[in-house]
């Protein structure tokens, strides 16, 4: 996929996956799945989309995200900033949707009650993580998150999904997925010398997340099910250098504390029913 996910451009000269453009990290943040394959129907039901309300669904796609608990979506902080003004979008200008791999399919829409962001500075990769609280339960399919002891899941083969720009430079109507390899932190710093702690690198030559799909999950396969290890945030050229992802483990304490304040909790991995069949596991999607 040209870029499964929309990334955001860094002040490091990265590219954001969100909307509009600035000459900074924010520009690396408009991302999509590059050189990806279509996700089969009835898979990836934990994938959500964030839209602008003043545009049609496909044109108004801002970012992706993963449903991690009843009423909660995990995504990237930069998704909620207008890249032309660097200001937060009013929350009533945004909607979330879920329930279909097709943007023009039978999707359920929900309003945003609150977006939780902490210590994030637009245009920088640190703390590029957000939790979206909605007015809807968001179905019953949840993305389990990597636990603190799951550091090995951040290595090896990983998967990404998104509707962002493809190698044909169009936003995909159908959700796309791709597999890629993790880069150790020391190797990642060879591409991005100023990368902060809490950021993961992953990619394959010609396969990456790209414009339009920031906020979507980077995941590993564990015991025949997916586990989210990262959140798509940025990169430098779709499919050229490895993409950048906020580490779920690094921010896990903040995630749990934010949910607990509202009386919510994410679904523990051991409570999620394994849904991957052998073919799905082999292809890296379930």
UniProtKB/TrEMBL annotation:
Alphabetized GO MF terms: serine-type endopeptidase activity
Cleaved signal peptide residues: 1-26
Coiled-coil stretches: none
Pfam families reported for this sequence: Trypsin
Entries under InterPro entries matching the protein: Peptidase_S1, Peptidase_S1_PA, Peptidase_S1_PA_chymotrypsin, Peptidase_S1A, Trypsin_dom, TRYPSIN_HIS, TRYPSIN_SER
Ranges of residues in domain Peptidase S1: 33-260
UniProtKB keywords: Disulfide bond, Hydrolase, Protease, Serine protease, Signal
Keyword Cell inner membrane in record: no
CDD domains: Tryp_SPc
GO BP: proteolysis
Family: Belongs to the peptidase S1 family.
Name of the featured protein: Peptidase S1 domain-containing protein
Organism: Undibacterium terreum
